[in-house]
Amino acid sequence: MDLARVRNIGIAAHIDAGKTTVSERILFDSGVEHRMGNVDEGTTVLDWMQEERERGITITAAATALPWKGCHLNLIDTPGHVDFTIEVERCMRVLDGAVLVLDAVMGVQAQSETVWRQMRRHHVPYLVFVNKLDRPGADFLRVAGNLKQRLGVRAIPVQYPLVEAGRVRGVVDLVTGLTWESRGAERAAEPRPLELPAEGRDEVGVLRAELFEALAEEDEELTGILLDGGTPAPEKCVRALRKRTLAGTLVPILCGVALENIGIQALLDAVVDYLPSPLDKPPVEGLDPENGERVLRGSRNEEPLAALAFKLQSQAHGELCFVRIYSGRIRPGDSLWNPRVRRFEKVARVMRMHANAGEALSEAGAGDIVALTGFKQTATGDTLCIRDAPIVLERLEFPEPVISLVIEPAQSGDRDKLHAALARMAHEDPSFHAREDGETGQWIISGMGELHLEVAQHRLVTDFHVTARVGTPRVAYREAPRQSATGRVELERTLGSREVFGCVELEVRPAQESAPAALEWAPDCPIPQAFRHAIAETLRLDTQVGPRFGYPLARIALRVVGGKSDPRRDAEMAFTQAANQALREALENSAVCLLEPLMSFEIQTPSEFSSGIIADLNSRRAEINDVEAEGALRTLHGTVALSKMFGYSTAVRSLSQGRAGFSMIPAGHCEVPEAELQARGLVWS
Question: Quick one: which of 357, 392, 399, 441 is 20 to 30 A from 512 by CA?
Answer without folding.
Answer: 392
